[in-house]
Amino acid sequence: MFQFWLALDCGTTGVKAALMDTSGKTLRSAYRAYPTHVEEGGISEQDANHWWQASVEAISELRAIEAQAIALTGQMQDVILLDAAGRITRSVILYSDTRAHEEANEINRKIGIDRLRQLTGNNQGADSLLAKLLWLTRHEPETLDKSDKLLIGAADYLAYKMTGQSVTDTTTASTTGLFNIQTRQALAQDVLTEMGLAHINRLFPVIQTGGTKAGSLRAEVSRELGLKDNIPVFHGPGDAGATTLGAGSGEIGRPYAYIGTSGWVAFTASQQAGAQTGVFTLAHPSPEHYICIAPILTAGGNLEWLRGLFGEADVGQMIRAALNTSPGKLLYLPYLNGERSPFSDPFARGTFIGLQVFHRREEVCRAVLEGIAFAYRHILDTLVTDRIDRLTLTGGGTRSAEWCQLIATIIGVPIAISSDADHASARGAILAAQVASGEREQHNYSISAEQEEIFEPQAKLRQHYDAQYTWFKAAYPALKPIFEGLETST
């Protein structure tokens, strides 16, 4: 049994490194940010070299020489292409990139929406790797020609840098469209051929159960990171899977929510989600289980956008100032990069409704905070048919107690924040590795009541937010044709 673990979560805005003990308790942690390149037309990219440099810096700050094993997790559904020498051949196309909407429509016509959903477990839109790879085939064939490996999650890249092995996990693979949810293997060659992607399977990484050992830390890398030679590196589930485990929802039971740059509501289930629910089905590390997840493409990322727009230095201070104002009627739709659930629309956009001349930046920010909370209520209503008595919240958004209180009030159920909620994904990556290596039997950490902070809904604001939520749900259907027209018009 390993007493000390180094866990890395390579997310959308930065990498979190944590030294944890065998029970998942964080002993020390560090964080390094990196930039995202965005352009009009749904383009969203990052440089994987930034991921590695940020990881090196975070681990150096951590001084984790006592680490006996490494567990990895991170953002999923990316296109990461390497040449035979392991060099990046182009910028990473992120999960939030939606430029390939024409290719997505073509694939759905060729294969059939129902057949594709049956094979992959989910609808496949512009965010699918199927569409993105077809886009590359048509617009950048030279990039694919010089590429030797395709990695599909940030943890894949870190594992490759550390061990030299090209591997991914079943949870990450199930987000891409390249994965058969029933066989838990890559799509058959004949299906890829029908899509015009016959040449892609030569690039595929090895697909393993989340938590499986990827290899051992190479000597030259251990010196770069200041770690012991030859320690084992475990490839945990992608961030949604790892967070599900680390939040205490790794076994069948109550749902939880994650609020970071992106977000979701999810739970472990014994069956796939219904085809028309707007809920995605991901592979759980246990082959008999699934993770049912309703994702928000842009959650806290709306605040990062607003912070940059207003030139605010600190997000926490911006939130506090906004929530010191009174609730109003200004509505905000938080769809800056399109949306994935409870509807899938790459053309949906962020929108203010009811903006007036007297609105100040604090009131605009409050509307953004409320709009994100309404989006969580919307997907919770879609995902869960039975009323729940509370919702566990994880992720970086939990650092603001004021925002947690607002979310509890808007959703209408108590919000539970576990201690160290910001490191749930790192904790889950370790838990998956412990199960895969036989140290634990179940994907579950016990979280006691003493380890949680509870935020109760404010009853006096219930009527106001119920009314606002009604208008929030009505806004997108009314604006949908305008969103599409703006995006597709010449």
Give your account of this protein's structure.
The protein is of the alpha+beta class and 490 residues long. It folds into two domains: 4-236, 2-Layer Sandwich (Nucleotidyltransferase, domain 5), CATH 3.30.420; 250-490, ATPase, nucleotide binding domain (Nucleotidyltransferase, domain 5, 2-Layer Sandwich), CATH 3.30.420. It is 37% helix and 22% strand. The strands form seven sheets. A seven-stranded mixed beta sheet has the order 18-19-17-16-22-23-24. A hairpin with a 4-residue loop joins strand 2 and strand 3 (26-33). Helix 13 (361-383) crosses helix 14. The protein is globular, with a radius of gyration of 21 Å. It starts with a strand and ends with a helix. The mean pLDDT is 94.
The profile of the biggest β sheet is: 7 strands, mixed
Number of DSSP helical runs: 16
Task: Determine the CATH superfamily of the largest domain.
Answer: ATPase, nucleotide binding domain
The tally of domains stands at: 2
What is the CA-CA span between the terminal residues?
Answer: 61 Å
- CATH architecture name of the largest domain: 2-Layer Sandwich
What fold name stands as the CATH topology of the largest domain? Answer: Nucleotidyltransferase, domain 5
Provide the structure class: alpha+beta
Shape: globular
Biggest sheet strand order reads: 18-19-17-16-22-23-24
Calculate Rg over CA atoms: 21 Å
Strand content bin = 15-25%
Tell me roughly what share of residues is in helical segments. Answer: 25-40%
CATH class of the largest domain: Alpha Beta
Q: Look at the structure and give the mean pLDDT.
A: 94
Q: How many strands?
A: 24
